[in-house]
Amino acid sequence: MIGKERPELPQVKYVVSACLVGVRCAYDGEHRRLDKVVDLVRRGLALPVCPEQLGGMPTPRPPVEIVSGRVVDQQGNDMSRNFERGAQEAFSICQLAGCTEAILKSRSPSCGSGCVYDGTFQGNRINGDGIFAALLKANHVRVLTDEEFVSGMDDDPSV
């Protein structure tokens, strides 16, 4: 192969919620697959991570919500350390890969951006960010929810 140039590989641009590419890592043991996000991974433009699994949470796991800055399950057990550790691990992967943008699962206590559940476990939503999304934003990574990404696809054919 001397003298032959390798084709340039695409630059990984996005870190994405692993559940969006079909990994069964959501709290209920299911996935939230979106073909448009899967396509980004196939093209080498995105890297999937699950902050909750990286933080040591099992799958499936009890639902959790953010209450007064803490991540708790319905029984009131504090899972904040797991979520913080998972966010840090996922962020480290994001940095190593050189990701500058994220596509994350909306309303998740890890990945929600701009809107999360209010901590009553009644399906009520409030303004706020999940633990991983907040860490990315604090470090100048542009965060889109899966819903924003899908709705914006029609506007940006280059993605």
Could you characterize what this model shows?
- The protein is α/β, with parallel strands linked by helices.
- It contains five helices and eight strands, in the order βαβαββαβββαβα.
- Strands 2-1-5-8 form a four-stranded parallel β-sheet, with helices on both faces.
- Helix 3 packs across helix 4.
- The longest helix is centred in the middle third of the chain and has 18 residues.
- It is elongated.
Summarize the structure.
With 159 residues, the protein is α/β, with parallel strands linked by helices.
Topology:
Elements: E1 14-17, H1 35-42, E2 46-49, H2 51-54, E3 64-67, E4 70-73, H3 80-97, E5 101-104, E6 116-117, E7 125-126, H4 131-138, E8 142-145, H5 146-152
Parallel strand pairs: 1-2, 1-5, 5-8
Antiparallel strand pairs: 3-4, 6-7
Helix pairs in contact: 3-4
Number of helical elements: 5
Main sheet specs: 4 strands, parallel
Percent helix among the residues?
25-40%
Give the N-terminus to C-terminus distance in angstroms.
Answer: 32 Å
Low-confidence stretches: none
Q: Say how many strands there are.
A: 8
User: Within the largest sheet, what's the order of strands?
Assistant: 2-1-5-8
Order of helices and strands: EHEHEEHEEEHEH
By helix and strand content, what is the structural category? alpha/beta
**How much of the polypeptide forms β-strand, as a percent range?**
15-25%
Any idea what the radius of gyration is?
Answer: 16 Å
Q: Label the overall shape.
A: elongated
Mean pLDDT equals 92
